[in-house]
Design goal:
Blueprint: H1 3-9, H2 14-32, H3 36-44, H4 47-52, H5 55-68, H6 74-93
Helix pairs in contact: 2-5, 2-6
Length: 94
């Protein structure tokens, strides 16, 4: 399965994938907000910056690699894409 072709099927742009990944990171930060030292360390260590750098391209490459090696099937990838689609709809409502 070709991930970029599947993205076309869902009418996704890189910005939609970026929004999904940013949302996941934001949820992690909210979870860490009760642990101030953990959140501060996450930001100051450069881990946040490293995760955000080219995150959408790396995500697509990783999905393609998992699919190519039969470590993730199409239904799992479609589940992820359905989550991306849901966030895309919410974002476009605002």
């Amino acid at each position: 399965m070709n991930i970029k072709e599947l993205m076309k099927e869902y009418s996704f742009e890189l910005n939609d994938v970026r929004w999904y990944l940013a949302n996941n990171i934001a949820l992690e930060c909210i979870e860490m907000s009760n642990r101030e030292n953990d959140l501060t360390s996450f930001i100051s260590s450069g881990e946040l910056e490293a995760r955000v750098y080219n995150m959408e391209e790396r995500f697509i490459e990783d999905l393609q690699d998992l699919s190519d090696r039969n470590r993730m099937d199409e239904s799992n990838i479609r589940d992820i894409f359905n989550n991306i689609y849901s966030l895309k709809l919410k974002r476009n409502k605002n």
